[in-house]
Design goal:
The complex is a heterotrimer of chains A (about 625), B (about 70) and C (about 220).
Chain A (H helix, E strand, L loop, with lengths): L1 H7 L2 H26 L7 H19 L3 H7 L27 H30 L9 H35 L7 H9 L1 H13 L13 H4 L3 H29 L12 H32 L13 H12 L1 H22 L6 H14 L18 H10 L1 H15 L8 H18 L2 H4 L1 H7 L3 H31 L5 H27 L16 H29 L32 E3 L14 E3 L9
Antiparallel strand pairs in A: 1-2
Helix pairs in contact in A: 2-3, 5-6, 5-7, 5-22, 6-8, 6-10, 6-13, 6-20, 7-10, 8-10, 10-11, 11-12, 11-13, 11-14, 13-14, 13-16, 13-17, 13-20, 14-16, 17-20, 17-21, 20-21, 21-22
Chain B lengths: L1 H31 L3 H19 L12
Helix pairs in contact in B: 1-2
Chain C lengths: L25 H33 L1 E2 L3 E4 L4 H26 L3 H26 L8 E2 L2 E2 L9 H33 L9 H26 L2 E2 L1
Parallel strand pairs in C: 2-5
Antiparallel strand pairs in C: 1-2, 3-4
The structure holds copper (II) ion.
């Protein structure tokens, strides 16, 4: 009974109620004004205002804005820490909390939940594609589902990146929390109404523009497109706030002796990610805003019949949306570099090169956006430099691959679940990487553009760069977060289902792409000869879906078990593994000092973090 | 203390005068030939002055707080 | 999952409000705030930069070069001067607070907020002509020169001024908050990050307009 009371009174429920009230108030307000002024019936301006107010309503009712409102009123606002009086510990996770570990876990379970939603969308339209002709879905529903699949997965990935950076970075650098704890909470909570907006866009007419929202199609799409664009915008806002927070945290809150080149390598990846997030995100924000304003306020930017130019949208859009791919994969590649030395018991090969290659990828990523526009009628002379720049991405990425191979070389490898996922990630990201230049090269891109080859390539980079490493990270830090060990047998089963499932899916997509299957289309001709592969892809996707459910079961049931895990099961040198469970509210009750390099595994007498506390038993 | 305060205020007066002169210069250039390059350079100078004096950008590299 | 519930005896993580041992020293927190705010400015630079790019992209007519809409030059110059002046008063106010002169600080911030509001009126009421007014004085039409539906000129002009006006009005709000807190005696010579941060924000809004003013009013051939 008390449990139910806490759930009903949680920030999620309160926020959703607030969002509903404010949304309808906004719609009603605009509707009233418009009918009083005798304007024609058009719900869209009302929906836009309602959506904006709804987000404010969510944040207000959830309690995210309370401290700032007090500040406006001229009151003192001390930070509240710890569990609220008389409430169970788990209630923290359902309410606004400023502790970075709580926020990191909130990001984590939200990411997995949203991942499941986006995955279900994919499975539904995969079933439709298993046969030529129209069976399950009409074209409109199909279009909405694949569009929503794209943006919902992007939301999930951004949340997953937030989970890893929020939970890990302060622990890894020896900070007590993030530099701006309230802003950190805001970054997480603003993502919830964003997902709500996207999902409600599917109900009110859906949209058929894919996740890119190109005009002029987006100017003609049903009402749902507006909610999608605004939800996308809010995800960006969350991204910007959290990346600035992270950069400041890493700048000012490192432990004694934690010089830049002694930080755990994941921190470098998080910094490179943040550098992209806090700059490029603004340009997609502009693209989305202009798109909404053109629809709702009658301004002209993109519609060629009024003198606008749709190619401008593509420039603004891809200036963010190419680099954002590195926002998705850089943290994942950081996880790979972080875990490989632990499971190889050898120093990380070329630490500095890996650290700088993350920055290199981030930098080159800003110079290549127009490779998505080779077929858009862009100036021909610009295509060659963008093609060349695209090829340069291979250099810093190659540095990482060579370093990983050299790290494993002659190491004492052990193959627990996190290591399996790391190895899976490397192989999958490799195939994602080498299928890219074919799309970055103008002549081949002209042929393969908008085909399923693109879908295969993209899913390989996302699985290799994010999904596999994210799962590796979840298994790896699970004992740190819950104090329990996951079930190794189920973890291995997850891996051995997901790997073949993924390979069949991705290679199948590439194959039918070469045969001429276009992406984003509900139907195809039987004479294309792709139906057999389509069936295989659908089965593979179902297998992947089931394997993820196995992971969810594994995590939930293991977290509830009585048996405690050892403190440092992997024999890691990283500071967060040197303190026992549970991690104190402010992370390190006994401060530590960094006295050596982070990855000197297997070197006699080497020391990374030096603390006065008693050494913890190691599982090594 | 008082001298420092006066000097700081004086610096503000000089900057606002400079900004006024540059704004009028922009206006004049626009009437005469509308050179985009000149206008952009003047805008850059104005922004640099504000960033340097009004926004104390150098405080970013200073150890103490005020 | 109750990872942080059980208090360890002897450790201080059963935290209360007065327990601030883990917090950053004020000087470090201010440096962190400063860096955070500047990073926010860099971030916003990409927002306003993208709008400027939109302007130069769409107002470029093949064969003619850059164009601009026909606006009231007098109104543009006046609003620009008002914003510069308000930035000047914010500088005075912040400088006064660093020397403990609370009266000058509150007066300057209030004045700057009013000037900011005047700028906002100049854009929204006069340029946009929100209330459909007309006034012809000194041979100048003071209200409404461009409609939002006037092709790419109207679209870009309303978008850029609108996005800037949003920052102006939030800046006015912040200045008034600082003024109110200052009136209540809440800042000191040692601790007045609020005063400094809000001043930085207001100057930034001014810097943005320094680039928007020539882009909207001066550059290109009037059509
Ligand atoms: Cu790209």
């Amino acid at each position: 009974m008390r449990t139910l009371g806490i759930i009903i009174n949680s920030a999620y429920v309160r926020g959703l109620i607030g969002q509903a009230i404010f949304t309808f108030a906004g719609i009603g307000l605009v509707g009233g004004i418009r009918s009083a002024m005798g304007l024609e019936t058009n719900v869209e301006p009302g929906v836009v205002l309602g959506a904006i107010l709804g987000v404010i309503g969510f944040l207000l009712f959830a309690g995210v804005l309370t401290d700032w409102l007090k500040w406006i009123a001229g009151k003192k606002t001390p930070l509240r820490h710890g569990v609220p009086e008389g409430k169970p510990g788990w209630s923290r996770y359902l309410n606004v909390d400023v502790n970075h570990k709580v926020i990191g876990i909130q990001y984590g379970y939200t990411s997995i939940l949203v991942l499941l939603v986006g995955g279900i969308f994919a499975l539904v339209f995969r079933l439709e594609l298993a046969q030529p002709g129209i069976q399950l879905l009409d074209a409109k529903t199909y279009n909405t589902l694949f569009s929503a699949h794209g943006i919902v997965m992007i939301a999930s990935i951004l949340l997953g990146v937030g989970a890893m950076t929020n939970y890990l970075v302060p622990l890894m650098i020896g900070a007590s929390d993030m530099a701006f704890p309230r802003l950190n909470a805001f970054s997480y909570w603003v993502g919830i109404p964003a997902v709500v907006l996207i999902l409600s866009g599917m109900v009110v007419g859906g949209w058929d523009t894919g996740w890119v929202g190109y005009p002029p199609l987006s100017l003609r799409a049903p009402l749902g497109v507006v909610l999608f664009l605004m939800g996308f915008y809010l995800n960006g806002l969350s991204s910007i706030a959290s990346s600035i927070n992270l950069l400041v945290t890493v700048s000012f809150m490192r432990a004694k002796g934690m010089t830049p080149f002694r930080m755990p390598i994941f921190v470098w990846a998080a910094v490179a990610t943040s550098l992209i997030q806090f700059t490029a995100t603004q340009t997609v924000g502009v693209a989305l805003t202009l798109n909404v304003m053109e629809r709702v306020a009658g301004l002209t930017f993109f519609n060629p019949t009024n003198g606008g130019d749709p190619v401008l949208y593509q420039h603004l859009f891809w200036f963010y949306s190419h680099p954002v791919v590195y926002v998705f994969v850089l943290p994942g590649l950081g996880i790979i570099s972080e875990l490989l030395p632990v499971f190889s018991r050898k120093p990380l090969f070329g630490y500095k090169w890996i650290a700088l290659s993350s920055l290199g990828i981030a930098f080159v990523g800003f110079l290549v956006w127009a490779h998505h526009m080779f077929t858009s009628g862009m100036n021909d002379a610009l295509r060659i430099p963008f093609m060349m720049a695209t090829m340069f991405v291979a250099i810093p990425t190659g540095v990482k691959f060579f370093s990983w191979v050299a790290t494993m070389w002659e190491g004492k490898l052990s193959f627990e679940t996190p290591m399996l996922f790391v190895l899976g990630a490397i192989s999958v990201f490799l195939i994602g990487g080498v299928t890219g230049p074919i799309l970055g090269t103008i002549p081949t891109d002209l042929h393969l553009h908008d085909s399923y080859w693109v879908v295969g390539h993209f899913h390989a980079t996302m699985f290799g760069g994010f999904i596999f490493p994210f799962f590796a990270a979840i298994y790896y830090w699970f004992p740190k977060i819950t104090g329990r060990m996951y079930k190794e047998s189920l973890g291995k089963l997850h891996f051995w289902l997901m790997v073949p499932g993924f390979w069949i899916m991705s290679l199948g997509q590439m194959q039918i792409g070469l045969l001429g299957m276009r992406r984003r289309i509900v139907d195809y001709e039987a004479v294309l000869g792709v139906q057999g592969t389509q069936v295989l892809i659908t089965i593979a996707a179902l297998v992947i879906g089931w394997s993820v459910l196995i992971m969810v079961y594994n995590l939930v049931s293991s977290a509830r078990s009585k048996e405690m895990a050892v403190t440092n099961p992997w024999g890691s040198r990283s500071p967060e593994w040197q303190i026992p469970y549970p991690v104190p509210e402010f992370n390190y009750d006994v401060p530590f000092e960094v006295v050596g390099d982070p990855y000197d595994y297997g070197l006699d007498g080497s020391e990374y973090v030096h603390t006065q506390a008693a050494p913890v038993p190691s599982g090594d | 203390m008082d001298e420092q305060k006066k000097a700081a205020f004086r610096q503000g007066n000089i900057v606002v005068l400079l900004l006024a002169v540059l704004t009028i210069a922009e206006f004049a250039i626009a009437i005469v030939n509308g050179s985009t390059v000149f206008l952009f350079i003047i805008a850059l100078i104005k922004a640099a002055v504000i960033v340097q004096v009004f926004m104390h950008v150098s405080r970013l590299w200073r150890e103490e707080s005020h | 999952m109750s990872a942080y519930t059980k208090a360890q005896p002897g450790s201080h993580h059963e935290a209360h409000d007065e327990d601030r041992a883990h917090e950053l020293p004020y000087a470090t927190q201010v440096r962190a705030n400063r860096l955070g705010l500047w990073l926010f400015f860099i971030s916003e630079f990409f927002l306003f930069g993208a709008l400027l790019i939109t302007r130069f992209y769409l107002w470029n007519v093949p064969g003619v070069g850059q164009t601009r809409p026909e606006l009231s030059q007098e109104l543009g110059l006046i609003t620009t001067s008002i914003l510069l002046l308000s930035s000047f008063f914010v500088y005075r106010g912040e400088t006064a607070m660093t020397f403990g002169d609370r009266k000058t600080f509150t007066q300057s911030y209030l004045l700057a907020a009013l000037l900011g509001l005047l700028f906002f009126v100049g854009v929204v009421v006069m340029e946009w002509n929100l209330f459909g007014l007309t006034l012809n004085m000194f041979g100048i039409e003071w209200f409404g020169h461009l409609k939002p539906s006037d092709g790419v000129h109207g679209g870009v002009f309303y978008m850029m001024t609108g996005m800037h006006a949003l920052h102006v009005i939030s800046g006015v709000g912040l200045l008034l908050i600082a003024w109110n807190r200052g009136r209540k005696g809440m800042y000191s010579v040692e601790r007045h990050w609020g005063v400094e941060g809000i001043a930085l924000y207001w100057h930034y809004v001014d810097v943005v307009w320094i680039f928007f003013y020539p882009a909207l009013y001066l550059i290109g051939k009037a059509v």
